[in-house]
Amino acid sequence: MIAITRVAGKPHITPRLDAMWHRGIAGTESGVFEFFESFKAEISSNNKIRIRSGIGMLQGRYFAVEPSTYDEVSIGNGTQGEKRIDLIVARWTVDDENNTQDGDWHVIQGTPTTGTPAVPAYTTGDLDAGDLIADMPMFQVAMDGINLTAVTPIFKTAISTEAARISAETKQMFAAAGYPIE
């Protein structure tokens, strides 16, 4: 057994232990929580997408865009007469040499085509198994020629903390007793 919430006299909680706890609380592997603006995406130009505030979790590792702010992500130029699908992923990277981990937005550019564009591959990775990169697909970006035409969210929505606190059975029990919970 590993005692996680203990006083050890030195740092002892690893990202892996922290991620295990987060998964247990959230009951999910990866997803976006229903808080703030849940990473609402907006096209701001033919090469820029704004990602609004939100909280997400990739294999138990949390990432966020703070309330009342946004991140701006740049997309590569389109090609006249061709279509393309890009992916915006939340990418978690591990640098064992420097003993660091970090998360950031990453764009995976698709292949331009005159036919039907394919969604590009991404790195699934298993951080707990020692992989150094793991991607969580967040948005598909459609390019038609030089125009950025759509940004479609493709992430899983995790259970909100509020919804997780009160189960459906508990709500039904209170409603049957004449005390409905909204």
Provide an overview of this structure:
This protein has 182 residues and is mainly β. The chain is 14% helix and 40% strand. The protein is built from three helices and eight strands, in the order H-E-E-E-E-E-E-E-E-H-H. The chain has helices at residues 15-26, 161-165, 168-176; strands at 30-32, 41-43, 48-58, 61-74, 83-95, 100-108, 133-144, 147-153. The strands form two sheets. Strands 1, 2, 3 and 4 form a four-stranded antiparallel sheet that branches. The longest helix is centred in the N-terminal third of the chain and has 12 residues, at 15-26. The protein is globular. The termini are far apart.
Largest sheet: 4 strands, antiparallel
- Summed up, the helix count is 3
CA-based gyration radius: 20 Å
Average pLDDT number = 88
Based on helices, strands and strand pairing, what is the structural class?
mainly beta
Spans of 5+ residues with little confidence (pLDDT < 50)? Answer: none
Tell me the β content.
Answer: 35-45%
Tally of extended strands? 8
Order of helices and strands: HEEEEEEEEHH
Helix content: 10-25%
Terminus-to-terminus distance? 40 Å
Taken from the alpha-carbon principal axes, the silhouette is globular
